[in-house]
Amino acid sequence: MKIAVVGTGYVGLVTGTCFAETGNHVTCVDIDMNKIEALRKGVTPIYEPGLEVLLTRNIKEERISFTDDLKEAVKEAVVIFLALPTPSDQDGSADLKYVLQVAEELSGMITSYKVIVNKSTVPVGTCEKVTAALSKKLSKDLFDVVSNPEFLREGVAVEDFLKPERVVVGSSSEKASKIMGELYSPFVRQGNPIYFMDARSAEMTKYAANSFLAMKISFMNEMANLCEKAGANVDWVRIGMGSDQRIGKRFLFPGIGYGGSCFPKDVLALNLTAKEYDYDFKLLRSVLEVNKIQKKLIVDKIRNHYKNNLSGKHFALWGLAFKPETDDIRDAPSLDIIEALLGAGATLSVYDPVAMENIRKKFSDRIGYGMNQYEVLHNADGLLILTEWSEFRNPDFDKMKRLLKEYAIFDGRNVYALEKMREMNFHYESIGREIVDHRSVS
Ligand SMILES: NC(=O)C1=CN([C@@H]2O[C@H](COP(=O)(O)OP(=O)(O)OC[C@H]3O[C@@H](n4cnc5c(N)ncnc54)[C@H](O)[C@@H]3O)[C@@H](O)[C@H]2O)C=CC1
Ligand SMILES: O=C(O)[C@H]1O[C@H](OP(=O)(O)OP(=O)(O)OC[C@H]2O[C@@H](n3ccc(=O)[nH]c3=O)[C@H](O)[C@@H]2O)[C@H](O)[C@@H](O)[C@@H]1O
Predict the structure, then answer these.
(1) Statement to judge: residues 117 and 247 lie in one domain
(2) Which of 196, 220, 248 is where one domain is finished?
């Protein structure tokens, strides 16, 4: 099938590449010419494991190409995916300007039947708005609009796309649903379902899924805070509760608050949708509040340990991306933590395996940068762990102690066992577990 994908970000590029991988002919279009030029050479502008290999193979086989010319890209396509940004507007609602602008542009370009698929995360009712924008210059029998929310996670995006737990297709058109079914058939061969539903329900499903996951995390963050006060260990509590299949083991890890380009904006947007329909979604409001507080928690722990005087203190930071296996720092908790520490007068040296370039663009010479995880430890009054990259899990603790001024670790991701920290004589504070205090060790 001939496909066009508008927007070659995290979602668009993975979508285009994976559809090319299953034999389709894909044209990806973006307004960012730097991206297009890099992609034509097989270089991915984002860090996403497995993507570049797949991309290079499909470029070589001439199944995927890149352009900044929307008209050219959609000319022969039967299906046009919109994978455009839907960032938070000033009031927190999803800003639809990118999606609706492209829909209007398409309205003047289409001359044969197309399925216009919205893959961006958009509020309930957006398909109708896209239909209205397309209808400005286009006859209704020349297109159908479909909602096809995307559930991939960054860092494992290729795997998630190729083996989705489910595919959701929202449409009232039999013709468009049939085309979508054909397109996705290679990805659901193992019996994972495609759910065909109306567009409004599909749009709502996406927000429901993200908000529910955010709620699960916020619940565990609050549980961790209570465990700390009550002398329980949240790691045991997590394992104990998660083995009940009704609860599930995943997404129960407490930490420094959820971040990324989606949970924060999507919970906000759903809360505003609720307001728009005159519904007070109390749980969602709590999720937002808990996450805001959780992002500050590690800074509070540090302030406490250093008796509220961070002026002149120097800290090392390991991990800056909002989660491992990505270079994405959009809404990463590390951003708030860096600002809070700088604001309190501390100086910082930071390291992340892949997000350094993005962090440097944001903070330039306000902070120091290390070439590796050990370099940043030199003369530091403490180490903060903000992203649970694998390479931080089993470091050379003796080397760390030779470099650090104070043997203090503030771990926002519960990476180390308490026993190990006791054995190594570190002052160690984590989330929802007792403090290991080296001063109390003989
Ligand atoms: N990042 C993720 O893991 C997921 C994101 N989503 C949703 O997918 C949508 C896209 O997200 P990302 O891929 O992360 O965004 P992104 O910001 O990485 O990519 C968007 C791309 O669209 C391009 N663009 C903007 N205006 C354009 C135009 N007029 N014509 C052509 N290209 C244009 C930008 O240059 C950029 O390359 C959002 O609604 C997001 O909520 C859904 C599931 C997962
Ligand atoms: O709509 C989206 O963009 C995507 O948002 C999330 O994916 P992603 O943001 O890539 O990352 P997650 O793995 O969900 O992590 C989000 C945040 O929650 C945090 N988290 C996750 C799991 C957990 O147990 N605890 C926890 O604090 C992570 O550290 C991270 O900051 C969803 O998992 C995807 O299904 C969805 O498609």
Answers:
(1) no
(2) 196
Number of domains in the chain: 2
Q: Indicate if 171 and 261 belong to the same structural domain.
A: no
Asked which of 169, 196, 223 is the last residue of a domain, the reply is: 196
The rounded distance, in Å, linking the Cα atoms of 299 and 363 is: 18
Please report, for the domain that includes residue 131, its CATH number: 3.40.50.720
Q: Which domain holds residue 325?
A: 198-442
Strand ranges in 36-101 using DSSP code E only, listed in sequence order:
64-67, 79-82
Closest by CA position to 423, among listed 441, 399, 404 = 441
- Secondary structure E strands in 290-378: 314-318, 347-351, 368-369
Same domain membership, residue 300 and residue 266 = yes
How confident is the model over 350-391, as pLDDT tens digits?
999 999 999 999 999 999 999 999 999 999 999 999 999 999
Whether 262 is catalytic is: yes
Indicate if 301 and 380 belong to the same structural domain.
yes
The interface predicted TM-score of the complex, written ipTM, equals 0.98
* From 14, 17, 30, mutation site for ligand 1 pocket: most ligand atoms within 8 A of C-beta: 30
Kindly state whether residues 8 and 117 are assigned to the same domain.
yes
Pocket of ligand 1 (CB under 6 A): 6-12, 29-32, 35, 83-86, 98, 101-102, 120-121, 150, 152, 154, 261-262
Note whether 242 and 131 are same-domain residues: no
- Rounded Cα–Cα distance for residues 94 and 75 (Å): 29
Tell me: do 44 and 10 sit in the same domain.
yes
Q: Can you name the residues that pair with 146 across neighbouring β-strands? A: 117
Site to probe by mutation for ligand 2, drawn from 151, 217, 328, 337 as the one with most ligand atoms within 8 Å of Cβ, is: 217
Catalytic residue among 28, 127, 227, 262: 262
Q: What is the Å distance from ligand 2's center to 258 Cα?
A: 7
Ligand that comes closest to the CA of residue 207: 2
131 is in an annotated binding site: no
Banded pLDDT at 442 (limits 50, 70, 90): very low
Domain shared by 70 and 192, yes or no: yes
Q: Could you read off the pLDDT of 252-302 as tens digits, one per residue?
A: 999 999 999 999 999 999 999 999 999 999 999 999 999 999 999 999 999
330 appears as a binding residue in the annotation: yes
Q: Which residue CA neighbors atom 19 of ligand 1 most closely?
A: 9
What is the strand order of the sheet 194-197 is part of? Answer: 64-67, 25-29, 2-6, 79-82, 114-118, 143-147, 167-170, 194-197
206 is in an annotated binding site: yes
* Closest-approaching ligand to the CA atom of 155: 2
Residue with token string 């903070």: 363
